[in-house]
Design brief:
Blueprint lengths: L1 H20 L1 H10 L5 H16 L4 H8 L9 H20 L6 H17 L9 E3 L4 E3 L1 H30 L5 H45 L22 H17 L2 H9 L6 H20 L6 H14 L8 H31 L4
Antiparallel strand pairs: 1-2
Helix pairs in contact: 1-5, 1-8, 1-9, 2-3, 2-8, 2-10, 2-11, 3-8, 3-9, 4-8, 5-6, 5-13, 6-13, 7-11, 7-12, 8-9, 8-11, 11-12
Length: 356
């Protein structure tokens, strides 16, 4: 029973770190365009992250039972996965690089599962459901979106910003700034809402997997006190209390802010006016919303970064600070393999010590 609470605590720690690590995804452009102060932006993001986190469970189900074979999952495996994700998130936050908390968690889960099984069969790489006519697994749900998301964000951001420039070509700059300064409040709220809908669900899936694993693979819940019966989950499901706790934890992390990454996202890629911030946030929120609907654990970092690049490129190509983009790309590429390796080594280490 103690181990179950430890895993849930570490999962919520990951969720909290996810909150302050990814705050920049939703609010950096609003801060850089001076539409809101940092405190105002974080407050807005906190509220809408909380609301978004309570909406839906499609992504949580993908994380909890669509990526790895649950036959090879135990509480130690989940703990190793979470530690791998947390370690990478803290490292990239410390150096001020936006990276994907989603991919950090997924990489950790896959690496730990491989360490548990002893081979690659523990990971669901690609499955086609003939009944539902849909593809599941790491390749279609994680790797392919990882490659496409920044490009979709970039192209959509470029196209949307180009359309706005065409429509506003005869409008005075002070009018544009005033109108889109207010519109950016809406786009920031929408971006925060979609961030909560997608990112918070990932930890929900991990906690649901933890409770399902503990219920079906051990005697941890035997003689369980009546007041703890809500932890007993013989089928994989996302309980209401799990959604609420994860939502509040992510909101608390968002409230803590992520100043280093806010600086990188807000001014490190391209200098923006309110209309550019509105275009980037609106594009990213729309892309993330579609992905969430289909249960795809998308990287909000990748999408908003791509959108900012696309919007900035409408000025001129060299308006984007490509040196910073290169650094971010390396962080994106390395996230999955590094977190998988950390979790794999932790899992194998526990087995070598006879603790599993």
């Amino acid at each position: 029973m103690t181990l179950i609470f430890c895993v849930i605590f570490v999962a919520l720690t990951f969720e909290y770190i996810n909150g302050f690590h990814d705050t920049a995804n939703a609010i950096a452009t609003s801060v850089s365009t001076r539409v809101m102060t940092s405190r105002q932006a974080i407050l807005l993001s906190t509220v809408f992250n909380l609301i978004g986190a309570l909406l839906g469970t499609a992504v949580a189900k993908t994380i909890g039972k669509g990526l790895v074979d649950t036959n090879f999952i135990n509480l130690h495996t989940i703990m190793c996965a979470l530690i791998g994700g947390i370690a990478w998130n803290l490292f990239t936050w410390w150096i001020g690089l936006p990276s994907s908390s989603s991919h950090a968690l997924i990489g950790g889960l896959c690496g730990a599962a491989i360490g548990s099984a002893g081979d690659l069969s523990a990971v669901n790489w690609w499955t086609h459901d003939l009944v539902k006519h849909e593809y599941t697994g790491v390749l279609p749900k994680v790797v392919l979106p990882m490659l496409l998301a920044p490009m979709v964000g970039l192209l959509a951001g470029f196209a949307f910003m180009g359309l706005l420039l065409l429509l506003l070509r005869s409008t005075r700059p002070w009018v544009v700034n005033r109108v889109f300064g207010k519109a950016q409040l809406v786009s920031a709220a929408w971006m925060s809402l979609e961030h909560g809908r997608n990112d918070a669900q990932k930890t929900m899936g991990i906690i649901a997997l933890t409770l399902f694993t503990a219920t079906t693979k051990g005697d941890a819940f035997h003689a369980l006190p009546d007041w703890l019966n809500f932890l007993h989950t013989p089928t994989f499901e996302i309980a209401t209390w799990v959604k609420f706790v994860c939502a509040v934890t992510m909101a608390a992390g968002t409230a803590a802010g992520g100043w280093k990454i806010i600086k990188t996202m807000g001014t490190g890629l391209v200098k923006m006016q309110p209309v550019h911030g509105f275009a980037a946030q609106t594009t990213a929120a729309a892309v993330i919303g579609v992905a969430t609907h289909f249960g795809i654990p998308l990287s909000t970092t990748h999408v908003i970064s791509g959108s900012i690049m696309g919007v900035g490129a409408t000025k001129r190509l060299n308006a984007v600070k490509w040196s910073m983009v290169r650094k971010m790309l390396w962080a994106w590429i390395l996230t999955l393999p590094i977190t998988a390796l950390i979790a794999f080594l932790l899992e194998r280490g526990l087995r070598a010590l006879g603790w599993v």
